[in-house]
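User: For my dataset I need records formatted as: sequence, then structure tokens, nothing else. Please produce one.
Assistant:
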Amino acid sequence: MPAKLPPLNALKAFEATARYLSVKKAAAELSVTPAAVSHQIKALEDYLGLPLFHRHNRSLELTEAARACLPKLREGFDNLLQAVERLRAHKGGGMLMVSAAPSFAARWLMPRLHRFLDEQPEVDVRVSARLRRPGEAGRRGATAERNTLNDWLADSDIAILYGRGDYPGFHVDKLIPLSVTPICSPRLVSHPQHPLRRPEDLAHHLLLHDDTGDLYDGVPFWSVWLEAAGIDGVDLRRGPHFSHAVLAFESAIEGHGVVATMPVLAETDLHSERLVTPFKLRVPLISAYYLVCREDNVKRPAVAAFRKWLLEEAEQATEAA
């Protein structure tokens, strides 16, 4: 049986007094009398069986036990506030919590999000760039994917993640089919000693590794592309590894090497020609980006509006690719 919590008002009185180290200031914040605050704190101390303040003539000092519990207490109040905000949002359908993989959030979603905000100004969108749980990459498969989704959707309305789309019990839309190809700075294409004209020329350049494929599909993106291109003699052990495409792009923009990755995440830099794709071959991937939400949430006005907008954006991006 769970332990019984002390009265919420007593906890609020303690937290406010601890923050100000003043009963008078805490009382003003809580709109009660100083005597009421002192009474609540005394009741809490009696409940806990230990003092929370050292009381001096004109000042208060937190006890060691009080200092130890304050961070978790404040975290608890923050969580309560967020829970109430979510309840209010569901009533009005106005707040939308979106979890997305960091590279997708930064490189694909954020450059487009302003269009949704212009169309739906009443929707309060909150985007969280989410990492998979520690060790998740080592437990590939349907169970691992469900664990990821349960984590992400515990405090979000929509999740956008890279995977195989095997998410039973959830509403799933395939957002963007993906392919992989080498990407680099245009300076490397016209390199004075070793220009990138044929795939074989990669042997003369540093390979940058976007580990997304290796971590979640078990096959490095470079292996996928080089096999499809029929190229041998390129040492895949060379070059630094990056856990997110964004990091690999920054290294490629600086001209440090060539990265095999998903061009859909490099749209902005490809359009501005900070990056280029030196070869025509794009190899389709098994995995894709998926939009996922709970079945009981899909008809919520904010969720439905965002889902419709995102699918339209994805369709336009796919047609333009």
